[in-house]
Amino acid sequence: RTAAKEQYLNSRQAVAEHTEAALARLREEHEKQWELLSQQYDALQHSQRQLDSDYVHLQYFQPCGEQIHAQALAIEELERSAALLEGELKAVDLEISGQTAEYENCAALLRAGLEAEVKELDREIAQHRAKINEIDTLLARSSGSLYEWLDGHLPGWEKNIGKVIDQQRLLYNKSLQPSLASSGRDAFFGLKLDLSEVESNIRTPAQLGEEKEMYQQAIVDMQESIAQKSSACEKRLKDLSEAMSPKMKELRQKRGEIDLTLKSIPSRIKVETLRRQELEDRQQKMRAERKAELDERKQQIAAQQMELDSARTLAKQALDRKQKELERDKAQRIKA
Fold first, then answer.
1. pTM of the full predicted structure?
2. What pLDDT, in 10s, does the model give residues 301-311?
3. C-alpha 321 chain-centroid distance
């Protein structure tokens, strides 16, 4: 019995040792496998952290940022230039308006002065023409008038009758039927008067003709004066225009240059805007491509994570299963 019991105990001890050795090898293999899976898991976590960082950096990812900023600055500079040029254009227009107003004011003063002088000369010409018409009327009435009869029948009449007679109503009147009367109440000059101090205003047809010529010449002179004054006014206006012309030419040339530059700015802004849009589109495309790469990495990491989780679960399940199998085998061998 003692030998059998000892043999049983030895057998049981051998089974136990065999089982423990097998379990030790199993745990060692499991630990190696688990270590490898842990290393893979750590590497995957590092990849996940790097991916998260890359997503954050994607928000600030601007591969064309400097170029886009440069284009924006170029557009802003063009807009500022346009505003400055518009201000310069208004200033030049204001100066041109001032020069034009100055010329127009001076021209208006010159024309007003000429108009006043011409108006006065026209008034004098009208008066002279009225005098000429009056003389023409007298000359037309001289034939058959009292003047003609007195001149033919009463020599020296100008020194007496001529000094008191009404020239318009009597002297050149054709309906008085003049005749000589030595005395009597019906005599035209029956009253004796001292007329030595009375100035005679009787004008002969010859004198009237001379006076008419004088008025006509005066009219010609005044018309020449009007023409000269008009010519002088035009010359002063021309001189004034020529004096102001260089400045006006300079201002108009400056305005043309400013206006030409100003009109070119919208097309230049359009070109710069298109360039900026192209850069923004390119950057957007690059950001989309970068995001697609990150999304693909995310999916790969997620798949690898699932594989690792599954592998770790399977490894643990395999360890548990093999440990149970070894324990069952141990129990069966001990019973045997």
1. 0.55
2. 999 999 999 99
3. 89
- The confidence band for 329, taking pLDDT boundaries of 50, 70 and 90, is confident
For the record, the structure tokens of 228 come out as 């000269």
> In this predicted structure, what is the pLDDT of residue 239?
92
Residue 185 has pLDDT above 50, yes or no: no
Q: Which residue shows structure tokens 């008419």?
A: 212
Residues with Cβ within 8 Å of residue 99, at least 6 apart in sequence: 244, 247, 248, 251
> For 212-238, how does the pLDDT look when each residue is reduced to its tens digit (9 = 90+)?
999 999 999 999 999 999 999 999 999
pLDDT of residue 193: 42
| Position 314, amino acid | L
Look up tokens 């359009």; give the residue.
270
| SS3 per residue for the chain | CHHHHHHHHHHHHHHHHHHHHHHHHHHHHHHHHHHHHHHHHHHHHHHHHHHHHHHHHHCCCCCCHHHHHHHHHHHHHHHHHHHHHHHHHHHHHHHHHHHHHHHHHHHHHHHHHHHHHHHHHHHHHHHHHHHHHHHHHHHHHCCCCHHHHHHHHCCCHHHCHHHHCCHHHHHCCCCCCCCCCCCCCCCCCCCCCCCCCCCCCCCCHHHHHHHHHHHHHHHHHHHHHHHHHHHHHHHHHHHHHHHHHHHHHHHHHHHHHHHHHHHHHHHHHHHHHHHHHHHHHHHHHHHHHHHHHHHHHHHHHHHHHHHHHHHHHHHHHHHHHHHHHHHHHHHHHHHC
- Joined together, the tokens standing for residue 80 give 């500022």
Q: Mapped to the 3 state alphabet, what secondary structure does 275-315 carry?
A: HHHHHHHHHHHHHHHHHHHHHHHHHHHHHHHHHHHHHHHHH
